[in-house]
Design a protein that fits this description.
Structural class: alpha+beta
Mean pLDDT: 85
Shape: elongated
Strand content: 15-25%
Protein name: PLD phosphodiesterase domain-containing protein
Low-confidence stretches: 1-5, 514-541, 660-666
Largest sheet: 8 strands, mixed
CATH topology of the largest domain: Endonuclease, Chain A
Helix content: 25-40%
Oligomer: single chain
Strand order of the largest sheet: 7-13-12-11-8-9-10-14
């Protein structure tokens, strides 16, 4: 396990993970956040530098789809997000009014390790590069098992509190975590760090923190509390978090708070309850030379020469006793909602022996807090009352809170799609003009009119939400997320490829990410990105011979690639060969067969479809395989073969592909 001392910024953490991906491939990504910005999310999922203005090519979108990452976030923070790709699994958490989904956790599971980042930063440019944030970095592997219990607790939260999404991607990540935890438990090290979660079940975050204190300090008394927070309760007196602390730990001797100078107006004397010794230290807006230099080093000089302004967003609390102290760092502000279970929060706690004075001094120095006590400047009531943060969520007039969920689904027995809305009072959909990008949708009983398959392909990047425009006030626009049905998500490979040639280009890694080709995509209206067809999709008026020649030039390379994959399966342990065959050979080839079958009909297309499926069947029959796997794959492709349409030559070719000898076929 490593801690934040290993990397000085999240940028360093993510860069290190993806730089090693060539030798240790990434298998799962799960991000838990309050909100995200599309560019930072796209960079994370693509393994790009977090500060890059990266515009993906279709190859990148297909790689993201193959990885099937999971993003769990607060549904109310859905934005227009024109760069969010389809077929990552967005899981919007719909929280009760005046509460929020507020954890910040980033899990990356590779072939050989698990890495988890827990802290205060959202997946936004501000959170990653501008705010003063706090995070903890953990890494586990076969030889690194310290604090494995924390990973187990995190996995339980995913399983117990997000399993109702029925996400295959999240389920696969959980299964992978369970397998690794089971394998690594044999060498499990000591438990030094502990997960502290709130809003997940009956035990509040403060109750969990109190239980840890009593266990680790052997029941010692909490004398003082030190806290770093940018946000505080709007109430005073018994409605403040300081009063909750007194009720949990008994009378305190001192309360020491550090916050931005600009936040002092949000505090009053009541926020300190009746604690005798009260200290308030402020962080100045202007950066000192040392902090400016440290930021430049951490970001490889990217910020050099810029006038930086940093806001406090870190959340930290220290419980101080006579012989030791307990430190918490995570997503929870110094508010009742953050700790009483209203919000969903997550952080890390650990216990240290001795005095907390040196630790606290180090925290204040790193934040450049001025050590003059500002408590005497506080009034009996706050002077600033505006809504400050996610803790103070206010409902907005016209928000369509009657909508429980929206899914994009296939229309049975057609190539079309439609949206389906679930919730109460669905007749209220008529109160809104509803758009998918710039396409206005019409709904009847919660179901939209069918949309052509090309509509989805044109929005592979962006278009991950619907815009509800309130007819009473057109300025009130709300973006509501949708998910793909499990059946549609399972077949995502089929919907990411316009043609068989397009699919082969991807499997052969032709068209990997590089400088964007201006001919590959063009901006649509209002920032939508519309993907054009590949050159290989060709002119529909080309004759069959030209199309066949072009197809064969790619298929010859594909044959060599799948022979290599089939032979590689033999190197796996016997018990893993069947799953390896399915993942690397059978499923991809069956997907290609489905792409070929889906192509539009017509006399020329029918000939090409028979020819392409026939060549694929012959490839499946020729691949080295064990236990009838190749025969089963061959049969699955033959089952998709169309009839000969009365053409004797086609009939002979189909017979040949099904096993007849060459003399009979020709």
């Amino acid at each position: 396990m490593t801690t934040a001392a290993t990397h000085h910024s999240l940028r360093d953490c993510f860069t290190a993970i993806f730089d090693a991906a060539g030798k240790d491939p990434v298998e799962h990504i799960v991000a838990m956040t309050y909100e995200f910005e599309d560019q930072q999310l796209l960079n994370l999922l693509s393994g790009r530098p977090m500060d890059e203005n990266f515009l993906p090519r279709r190859f990148d979108l297909k790689k993201i789809s193959e990885l099937a990452p999971v993003v769990i976030y607060d549904a109310r923070k859905t934005k227009e997000a024109n760069l969010v790709p389809h077929f990552l699994d967005l899981l919007p958490v719909k929280m009760p009014a005046f509460s929020c989904h507020h954890p910040k956790a980033y899990l990356v599971v590779t072939q050989a390790s698990v890495q988890l980042l827990l802290g205060s930063m959202n997946l936004t440019h501000t959170g990653l590069f501008r705010n003063r944030e706090l995070f903890h970095e953990f890494r586990w592997s076969q030889s690194e098992t310290l604090d494995l219990g924390l990973l187990n607790d995190f996995t339980e939260i995913l399983e117990q509190h997000h399993g109702d999404f029925e996400s295959a991607s999240l389920g696969a990540a959980i299964t992978g975590l369970r397998r690794r935890i089971s394998d690594w438990q044999k060498g499990q090290g000591e438990a030094r760090h502990h997960l502290v979660a709130s809003g997940y079940g009956a035990t509040s975050g403060l109750a969990r923190l109190g239980a840890l204190w009593r266990e680790l300090s052997s029941g010692a008394r909490v004398r003082r509390v030190f806290a770093v927070s940018p946000f505080f309760d709007l109430g005073t007196g018994s409605d403040t978090f300081a009063s909750m602390l007194v009720r949990e730990f008994g009378e305190l001797e001192g309360l020491h708070i550090v916050t931005d100078r600009a936040c002092i107006g949000k505090l009053c004397k009541g926020h300190f309850a009746e604690v005798p010794k009260r200290v308030l230290h402020a962080i100045e807006e202007a950066l000192g030379e040392e902090e400016q230099r440290r930021i430049e080093v951490a970001n490889d000089g990217a910020n050099r020469g810029l006038q930086l302004q940093r806001k406090l967003h870190a959340k930290l609390m220290v419980l101080c006793g006579d012989d030791g102290f307990l430190v918490y760092g995570g997503s929870a502000n110094f508010t009742c909602k953050a700790w009483n279970g209203d919000n969903r929060e997550m952080g890390v706690a650990w216990y240290e022996r001795g005095s907390a004075a040196r630790f606290i001094a180090g925290v204040e120095a790193s934040l450049h807090a001025v050590r003059d006590n500002q408590y005497s400047l506080l009034l009996d009531a706050p002077t600033v009352f505006e809504v400050q943060d996610e803790d103070d969520y206010e409902g907005k007039p016209g928000y369509p809170d009657f909508v429980q969920s929206i899914v994009l689904e296939e229309v049975a027995d057609s190539a079309n799609f439609r949206f389906s809305v679930s919730g109460s009072e669905l007749d209220r959909l008529a109160e809104y003009d509803i758009f998918w990008g710039h396409e206005r949708l019409q709904f009847n009983a919660g179901v939209s009119v069918p949309l052509a398959a090309s509509t989805l392909f044109a929005r592979l990047l962006g278009g991950r939400n619907l815009c509800f425009v309130w007819k009473v006030d057109a300025e009130c626009r709300f973006f509501l997320p949708f998910r793909h049905t499990p059946a549609l998500f399972e077949k995502r490979d089929l919907h990411l490829h316009e043609s068989a040639e397009d699919w082969m280009l991807y499997q052969l890694c032709i068209g990997q990410s590089g400088p964007a080709d201006p001919d590959e995509s063009v901006p649509g209206e209002g920032g939508e990105i519309v993907w054009s067809s590949q050159a290989f999709d060709g002119n529909r008026e080309d004759n069959a011979t030209i199309k066949a020649q072009r197809y064969l030039s790619l298929f010859a390379q594909l044959e060599a690639e799948f022979h290599r994959r089939a032979e590689a399966v033999g190197a796996f342990p016997v018990e893993q060969r069947q799953s390896a065959w399915k993942a690397t050979v059978a499923t991809p080839i069956e997907t290609l067969a489905a792409v070929i079958t889906r192509q539009q009909s017509g006399p020329v297309d029918h000939l090409l479809r028979v020819f392409q499926l026939g060549e694929l069947a012959l490839l499946a029959r020729a691949l080295p395989a064990e236990g009838g796997s190749g025969q089963a794959l061959h049969g699955a492709i033959l089952a998709k073969m169309p009839g000969d349409a009365g053409n004797p030559v086609l009939g002979q070719y189909i017979s040949f592909c099904g096993g007849a000898n060459v003399g009979q076929a020709l």
